């Protein structure tokens, strides 16, 4: 199975990683056979937001990927009018099983005509850009239109990657990938106290009392249906879940 990650100048490295992580874990754990390929206008290194990404293959070399991932980034006006990228998306869309876009990457997908007049989950600043291509911003974290998935940003992109693994393989495989990602995250986090933890310890020891907790970032909280779909062993409830493909 080939997973094509679209890379362009200004791409968000965080969103690239968020999309890629689950698929890399799927392959590394031997749970599924998949090849992750970064695709772009030309081979070589691309400078993005937060780092650099290497392009493994050009658009002309990747002709029928099973999954296409379109992260967001800066310069969406330029990217959404990149004729080669738009033509490639239109060419591979019919044979792709899934196409996913995050934050401003949803504008690129809309520019290719893959959303029609349907709304998309996107970055809050991208609503006007979506409207230019006939779409609109949705308040949902994840929106599904046919076999196209859109999401707010890098946090929800990880949920979308797990959703695609569930659809491509099965619930047990997606749940196992999620557990291994959580275990790896806890292992890294547990190797040394974080800076906030060290600051809280220092403040408490000097008699300052307890530091007020910062308000939670709701984007970091997985939606209830993610938990239900991956962990529940019971039949799905009568209420439709966003993980169910529309008829």
In terms of quaternary structure, what is this? Answer: single chain
SSE pattern: EHEEEEEHHEHEHEEEHHHH
Mean pLDDT: 82
Q: Per DSSP, what share of the residues sits in E-state strands of 2 or more residues?
A: 15-25%
Determine the structural class based on helices, strands and strand pairing.
Answer: alpha/beta
How many β-strands, per DSSP? 11
Distance between the termini: 25 Å
Strand order in the largest sheet: 5-2-1-6-7-11-10
Unreliably modeled segments: 209-225, 232-247
Percentage of residues in helical conformation:
25-40%
Helical run tally: 9
Radius of gyration: 19 Å
Give an overview of the whole structure.
The protein has 247 residues and is of the alpha/beta class. It is 39% helix and 19% strand. The protein is built from nine helices and eleven strands. It has helices at residues 13-28, 76-79, 83-92, 105-111, 127-132, 154-168, 171-190, 195-205, 224-231, and strands at 2-6, 35-40, 44-48, 51-55, 57-58, 67-70, 98-102, 119-121, 136-138, 142-145, 148-151. Helix 5 links the parallel strand 8 and strand 9. Helix 1 packs parallel to helix 6. The protein starts with a strand and ends in a 16-residue tail after the last helix.
In short:
The protein is of the alpha/beta class and 247 residues long.
Summarize the SSE layout with pairings.
Elements: E1 2-6, H1 13-28, E2 35-40, E3 44-48, E4 51-55, E5 57-58, E6 67-70, H2 76-79, H3 83-92, E7 98-102, H4 105-111, E8 119-121, H5 127-132, E9 136-138, E10 142-145, E11 148-151, H6 154-168, H7 171-190, H8 195-205, H9 224-231
Parallel strand pairs: 1-2, 1-6, 2-5, 6-7, 7-11, 8-9
Antiparallel strand pairs: 3-4, 10-11
Helix pairs in contact: 1-6, 1-7, 6-7
